[in-house]
Structure formats: C-alpha cells, structure tokens
Amino acid sequence: NFLAHTYIGMPIAVTVEGANILTRTLIVFGQGALRAHPYAYREIAAVEKKNVKDFDRYFWGHVGHVIRNAFRSVLLSLTRGRIMICAPGDKHTRRYYRKLNWASATFAWMADLAMASLGGSLKFREKITGRFADYLSYMYFAAAILRRYEAENRRKEDLPFVHWSMKYCFYQMQVAIDQIFRNLSVPLVGFLFKGPISWWSRMNSFSQWPEDWLENKVAELIQVPGEQRDRFTKNVFMPKDPENQLAKLERTLLMVYEAAGIEKKIKQATRSKVLDKLPAPALYQQALSKNVITQAEFDLLDKLQAAIYDVVQVDSFTSQELVRL
C-alpha cells in the first residue's frame, strides 16, 4: 500500500533537532524573538557590558517601538489594514499585503507585551510560545506565497492557489492570536485581553477558513495535467520504472483526464435513457454496441478500469501467512 508506507514513515520526516514540538516551542519564537528584535538583544548586550548609556538608548527606543506598534495594531485593526494606502501588489493581492502589515504589527506588539509581562518565565510557557511560533511561521508562509506570485510574473492561473493559501495562513494566524489573548496573563490589564480585546479579535478576524468553492477549484486544478501542474510538481521525483507505484498513479491520472470526455458522453446518454444504468464494464459494452463510443474509446476505458483497479490494491495475506506473521 503506497500511501500506508508513506504514513508509516512520517515520524521520521517530522524529527529535526529532537521532536518538532521543541523547535516550535523553544527555537522559532524563543530564539527568534530575541535575535530578530531591534532592541531586546542589544539591551541584554548593554547590560552584560555594564554600558548604561547604550542600555538607556536601547531601552527608550524599545519603549517607543512598543507604543508605535500598539497604535499601528489598533489603527490597522479598526480599518482592516486599509489605512495602508500605498500597499504593494496588484488588485488581487493588495489586500493581502495590507492584512500582513496589520498581522505583523499585532504580532510585534503582543510579543513585546509577553516578554515584558512574563520575563524569563516566558520560555516555560510552551503553549504560549508555541502559538507565537505558529503565528510567526504563517506570516513567513504568507510572505513567501506573495513573493512567488510576484517572482513568477503574477500568473492569472495561479490566483486560486494564492487566494486559498493566503486565506489559510491568515486563518491559522487568527487561531493562534485568539488563543494568545485567552491565555496570556498580563498584570493589571489581563482581563482586557481575555474579554473585550479577545471578543473584538473574533469579530474582526484576519480571515475565515477558505470557502468550499475555492477548495474545489484548487482540487480541480491540481488534477489537470499540463504546464501549471508541472510547475508545482517539478521537484517531485517521478520514477521511470513503469511498475513503480508512484509511476502507476501518475499514469492512471493522465488516463483519467484523457477519458473524461468519453465518460461525459456516456453520462449524457444515460441521462437521456439511450443507455441503461449499469455497472461500469457492462455500461461501456452497451455504449459500444449502441455506437455512443468508438472501439478505440472503449479500449481506453477498459484499460483505465484495469489501471484503477491496480492502483487501489493493498497488501493482502492468506490466513496461513497471517499466522506466520
């Protein structure tokens, strides 16, 4: 079973430096928030060097940074990013750049608030740091999606993938920030985050889960052989051995696409009662006898049925073999 063996091997793929959960809760945000912060690491370095002048400069710069991000987050939330008039992108992606600016301001403000309120204990609040890591990761994904769309000359045919991916990323950011608001214990004003701010965040969310029609469109596009699908799968290994299971799956997909027009003719003939409602092999035979399809088309359908039967097979064992196992 081709898919079963892939599933069995998944624990190997998700192990990096220890389990991925350690990367999520300690490294992505725990180290990244400090190293990538414009002031935090410099403040620590100034303390270690006992340089009061530098510490004072970085500290007050940090305070200004927090205040600016707080105002940016509030204004961008109230306007859903529209206050950013000169956003990059085209008419299809400009709103995503605005939302990403809004999301980054909220992340920066909440990250500073978490570090200030929890201090060194933040690294022991793995669920909080994990949610910050999720939020940060999906911001990176969103930026990468927009960058690829621009780098590949804004192909119109890629827009369904862009829209689905961006909505998915913003939805995951929303899930993360809602959980942060509900669980972050901030002295004095913590009730605001668990109450009014959390309520406003849910009412004014970045995005909902992508709509079904968009998911259906994406699913349809990735099943259509051609230049676009080839671009998405160009780095996927495709074995040349025709007996390899992956090669069989790809060959069967191509046959399904090739036979789609023939299947449509048969369905139309069935609806108009030219053909009876029969199981596939008998239906194809009747379609051939009534000249709904040609002999060549019948041969293709027959070959396709055999290919489909072959690829859906799984490992099977006799009772004697099971006893030995």
Which descriptors apply to this entry?
single chain; 325 residues; mainly alpha; two-stranded antiparallel sheet; 15 helices; 71% helix; elongated
Describe this structure as you would to a colleague.
The chain has helices at 2-8, 10-13, 20-35, 40-48, 52-79, 94-118, 126-151, 159-183, 190-203, 212-221, 227-232, 245-271, 280-289, 295-311, 319-324; strands at 15-16, 18-19. The chain is built from 15 helices and two strands. The model has no long low-confidence stretch (mean pLDDT 87). 71% of the residues lie in helices and 1% in strands. The longest helix has 28 residues, at 52-79. α6 (94-118) packs antiparallel against α7 (126-151), α7 packs antiparallel against α8 and α8 crosses α10 (212-221). With 325 residues, it is an all-alpha fold. The protein is elongated, with a radius of gyration of 28 Å. The two termini are 17 Å apart. It has a two-stranded antiparallel ribbon with strand order 1-2.
Mean pLDDT: 87
Note the overall shape. elongated
pLDDT < 50 stretches = none
Helix coverage percent = over 70%
The major beta sheet can be summarized as: 2 strands, antiparallel
Strand segment count: 2
Beginning-to-end CA distance, first to last residue: 17 Å
Alpha carbon gyration radius = 28 Å
Element-by-element helix/strand order: HHEEHHHHHHHHHHHHH
* Annotation field: number of helices: 15
Label the structural class. Answer: mainly alpha
β-strand percent reads: under 5%
Strand order, largest beta sheet: 1-2
